[in-house]
């Protein structure tokens, strides 16, 4: 395999179609080796102002471009992403750590989103409805909001950016994008792709920054009318309250405490595979990752045995080496958080069956590696079974029946994804009705949402909006009701005439 490299060692903001250098910068480290890969600019509010004024100007013209023509740019973006899939995937592995096959999967999500949203250029369906009066036509149509802000996380740095920017662009908006500081390369590459695809300048602006400086400036800016955010619970809630004060539309996706339920009639080997993939894939650093297993007490021991045997075979290491199945943790803060939960789990009385430690021998010592971890005999009220850990850690809770399994699943503040392994068709239908999450899987793990379906969750996962799917358009458009009276006289609605 030829390993790709970046042409630059310092990235720049992309504003109004130009690459703008910023004096202050931070180092971006490869989590597999802790080597510096690139420098990322640390911008302040002035860059946001600069981007917004360019975006405002560009958006006025863009809104008048017919949507099928706007979509042409997204088709080009899709073709370029496809052409560069391997490059993007390798760079993604270098900055994020996820193993190469997962990186390719993520880039593919972005490519799929490009073609799917390009198709929206010929749909963007509104509605026609009957009017109350004769000779009157009534319809509802989507209009762009104007300038929108997107704030994206490091765990899916390209896919989530496409879930947000593509619907925004095709529906006629201009975008200000603040990518995660840990993973700026995907933003740089996507901006280059947009530029080459012919997106008019000012419509996609990338402003890098650390901490909350850039995000705050975006939230406070009067001319940014929507904020779409994926990230931590604490940051999301702060953004929501600030946006609330300004009556700014905000879409939030903030994580999960997702469970796989294994019933006594389940295919246990299949369940083990599902748990393994959704708990330890991406080292558990997905909003959709399985971090609880709710198992019927009759099959608890067998499941534990098989899961432990399967976990032993997981190969952990640098994601560029294709024999590895589990990559590193993003950074030191991520490692510290996981370590803290090891203490919490022990103190709470859960039984540590596997893992629980940092891998620091040999090659592992150079990066941020944590051993896949299984706690058993957990109870639903424990913090390890309630709080998002964002690492390769699973807590196993046993239950006596189906009803309790559902109750335990729903007994957390998050509501993103859930899964059930069962061969009973009645349980399948009851579960899909009663599991209180935005995504439900049957006989599959909790990860792997497809881009043409709505992505998001109930309760503390977000605020009711959805990323991806046609539903994403609702975040980036306003509904406009239009009445055309062709009677030739003034007809008054809602007036009693008899
Ligand atoms: C995330 O973890 O934030 O469903 C996104 C999945 C992926 C996307 C995850 N398609 O697991």
Automatic annotation (TrEMBL):
Enzyme class: oxidoreductase
Active site: 253
Aldehyde dehydrogenase domain location: 26-482
Domain of life, per lineage: Bacteria
EC number: 1.2.1.3
CDD domains xrefs: ALDH_AldH-CAJ73105
Entry GO MF terms: aldehyde dehydrogenase (NAD+) activity
Chloroplast in keyword set: no
Family, similarity comment: Belongs to the aldehyde dehydrogenase family.
Binding partners and assembly: Homotetramer.
PANTHER family, per database record: ALPHA-AMINOADIPIC SEMIALDEHYDE DEHYDROGENASE
Protein name as annotated: aldehyde dehydrogenase (NAD(+))
Organism ancestry: Bacteria, Bacillati, Bacillota, Bacilli, Bacillales
